[in-house]
Design a protein that fits this description.
The chain is of the alpha/beta class and 379 residues long. The chain contains 13 helices and twelve strands.
């Protein structure tokens, strides 16, 4: 099997599984319980929060960690929680046209509630125009959400420049979806007020993630119940999964250079090999995040090629997994001014440090074979 769909989800590491099983078997007590076992787990969660902040080089006295079910919940909590809490300050919010749907759809909902939303374009290099962003800011602007790395094509957003541009506006709260950034690119997370992390994108388990926020930011809860996590996110805390998440995050951060070196070898081989195939268009650029490589087919259906590769136990995807079942063009590629043929027929090759150049060689061989065996047919 060759698994090139790591932007959708990664295989849990052996270390994560071992820690999860150990905790699920031996540290199963509810952290909210008042007895010794519960308080022991609650104290360990506090320690894990500190370790996560230290790994990200964030000031422990300034930030808090809220554990969630994953990036979608974290994004929703950041967006709805902030905008509804501070709507008395203004009703203008800003994002980009290429965000994950767990950001775009909450913004669309907020439009129904009376918020005015600006959706920014990106240029050919995948960055936003900073001067244009500054020109949009008004006295009513209260919130900006711009991802760290795009999940379909891998462009890196300029969050440090964005923070520099808006620092004169202390009322604006700056959030970033870092689900595809952590452990994959180097960015200064200290520029952010809110940030979203996901475990299963970095070889942890599904069903856990976190929202990191500055302590002075008040969030209106989405989930009401037993008032866990300072009444920001009620619900029994999944201690074993949080432990696994911490293990995965520590590995992703601590071994960044080692993982990056391996992934870049695979990425460069794929990029250079794909450049020679006339029937495809490479959407990603060499200097973008090396974990995601997007191509589009010029005269064949991507779904047919993806199925053909799957039959060979080679696994890639089209657009993001969350949007893959819809018969629609990639809105990300449309934002990059790709025509309908290319936007309807993308293939996303997303890598892990576990992938090898040998796997990439097999992929290229099989990919070429499948392309030559099917007749040209696009939407």
């Amino acid at each position: 099997m060759i698994y090139f769909d790591n932007a959708s989800t990664t295989i849990p590491s052996k270390e994560v599984l071992e820690e999860f099983i150990s905790c699920a078997s031996n540290s199963f007590a509810n952290p909210s319980s008042l007895h010794y076992l519960g308080m022991k787990n609650e104290n360990e969660i506090s320690r894990i929060k500190t370790e996560i902040l230290n790994l990200l080089k964030l000031n422990v006295s300034q930030y808090d960690v809220i554990f969630t079910s994953g990036a979608t919940e974290s994004n929703n909590l950041a967006i709805f929680g902030t905008c509804r809490q501070y709507k008395n300050r203004g009703n203008h919010i800003i994002t980009t046209k290429i965000e994950h749907e767990s950001v775009l759809n909450p913004f669309k909902e907020l439009e129904k509630e009376g918020f005015k939303v600006t959706y920014l374009d990106v240029d050919e290099e995948g960055k936003i125009n900073i001067d244009y962003l500054k020109s949009l800011i008004t006295k009513d602007t209260i919130f900006i959400s711009i991802m760290g790395v795009n999940n379909e094509v891998g462009n890196i957003l300029n969050i440090e420049e964005i923070k520099e541009a808006i620092k004169a506006y202390p009322k604006i709260i700056f959030h970033s979806d870092l689900a595809q950034s952590i452990g994959k690119v180097k960015q200064d997370y200290r520029v952010l007020d809110l940030m979203t992390l996901s475990s299963h994108k970095i070889h942890g388990l599904k069903g856990v993630g976190c929202l990191i926020k500055k302590k002075n930011i008040v969030l209106k809860p989405l989930i009401y119940g037993g008032e866990q996590q300072n009444n920001i996110r009620s619900g029994t805390i999944d201690f074993p999964n949080i432990v696994g998440f911490k293990v995965a995050l520590k590995d992703a951060i601590s071994n960044f250079d080692k993982h990056q070196e391996n992934v870049k070898k695979v990425y460069v081989f794929l990029y250079e090999s794909l450049k020679s195939i006339d029937s495809i268009k490479i959407n990603s650029k060499m200097n973008w995040c090396p974990y995601i490589l997007s191509i589009s087919l010029k005269n064949k259906k991507a779904s047919v090629v993806i199925e053909g590769l799957s039959n060979k136990e080679i696994y890639v995807n089209g657009v993001s997994a969350c949007n893959s079942k819809k018969n629609e063009p990639s809105y990300v590629l449309k934002a990059f001014n790709k025509d309908d043929t290319l936007a309807f027929n993308p293939i996303r090759i997303s890598l892990s440090y576990l992938n090898t150049v040998e796997e990439a060689k097999v992929f290229i061989e099989e990919f070429k074979s499948i392309l030559s065996s099917i007749r040209g047919e696009t939407r």
